[in-house]
Amino acid sequence: MTTTDQISGVFAALADPTRRAILARLARGEATVNELAAPFPISAQAVSKHLNVLEKAGLIVRTREAQWRRCRIEPAPLRDVASWVAQYRLLWEERYDTLGTYLDDLQKEQP
């Protein structure tokens, strides 16, 4: 998967609030599927489908220990997305600075 395709997959995965909540939980540490499913009013099977999307996007890794399946966050794809977004943040900051200067000039011209 190319970086651009991976970014598309990450954005698609992040579009769902349940998946974002699962990532927020995993940012605090590894968890089993049952631990991840506990706070949601949906079935463990539905949570498992969300985990499949996150895993396909490269945002989580699942491991198996005996009968337990543990999940952990994989931060690299989020760093790629943050770098991509940062390019546009600089563009907008420059435009806001230009607008701020223009508005300051207008106020100075007011009697």
From TrEMBL:
Residues 1-93 form the HTH arsR-type domain. SMART domains: HTH_ARSR. One of its GO terms (molecular function) is DNA binding. The keyword RNA-binding does not apply. Coiled coil: none annotated. Keywords: DNA-binding. InterPro entries: ArsR-like_HTH, HTH_ArsR_DNA-bd_dom, WH-like_DNA-bd_sf, WH_DNA-bd_sf. PANTHER family: SLL0088 PROTEIN, TRANSCRIPTIONAL REGULATORY PROTEIN. This is DNA-binding transcriptional ArsR family regulator. It comes from Actinoplanes digitatis.
